[in-house]
Specification:
By secondary structure, the chain is an alpha+beta fold. The chain is built from eleven helices and 18 strands. It is elongated. Pfam families: Regulator_TrmB, TrmB.
Length: about 350
Amino acid sequence: MDRDTLKQALENADLTGYEADAYLTLVDHGRLAAVDVAKKSGVPTSQVYDTLRSLETKGFVETIDQDRLHAEPSDPVDILTHLRERGELFSDAAEELENRWEEPDLTDHRVGVVKHAETVLEHARSEIRDAEVGVEVALTADQFDSLQTDLYKAANRGVVVHVAIYYEPDLERRAASWDLPKTGLEMRVVNIPGPFLAVLDRHRTFFAPNSRAKEDYGILINDDILSFINHWYFQTCLWYAWDPVSSTQQTPKTYISLKEFIRDITPLHHDGADIAVTISGIDTTTREYRTVTGTLTDIYYPDVFVDETPSLERLSTYAIVWIDTGDDVLSVGGWGAVYEDIEAQKLTLEAVSFDGVAQS
């Protein structure tokens, strides 16, 4: 590396042009009087004293006051460390700038692809903090540890949080430290490995393949329809089929899936229970958000059978419930409802009673 390039590198490491020139002169010649530093470098005599004092403050030189000011280069150990740290910083900054340049802005795009799965996790973390309705997330125990604070906070502010966690040999021990019954979220264990997946508020989806994938990448989705597809993958493959680690069984219990709600309450309805429910969602006529409370009056899905919990296959085509609010009987549909009165986003099972006797 020639002197000019080395001087430029020192300038990039927080030295001024005069400081870099003076320092290299001392490295090349050893101890020199200040006036000789000025003669052998490009530093003006009027600036050389201030330049050497500044270099001393930064730890690059030591000055000696004899009959006139002298200076010599300091032991380079600290300086070399500083330069190497700066090099790592510049390298990291370059990589981060590349990632940010290539990272899609989901405000303007429905789908974006990123190079690293960790980027997906950070996007999901940010959106979980802003979630208002529901979070469905499938992940490893390590990924849960990374997101658990934000997931707990979401559950505490009333967001319905469903966590599908992939099995590993020490999962039971790790789960004991999470104290799940106090967190307000529901967790189920999936015995087969799968991808990182987060579906948030029916609109945003974040996907990254598991560690067995040949490539490290992630997908960011800002789209209702694609999020609905991923929601169904979560429900069918990562949720319904697996046993809960922690579950909220007492009322009130809140659902973000009409189909899950129907699966739970259908046997109770056919047994003659009075089922009080609160529905929050979109009025399909005004497209405004509304909340109603009433009593369940009827359930419909293809091939209804009494005394049977409907299968997901049966519910996947069409499912609807009716709620008597006292003023009106409203039809309630699930995600994407068009003809019903309300597209349900949250369904809270408030109470179940038989002949006026409440059941918990």
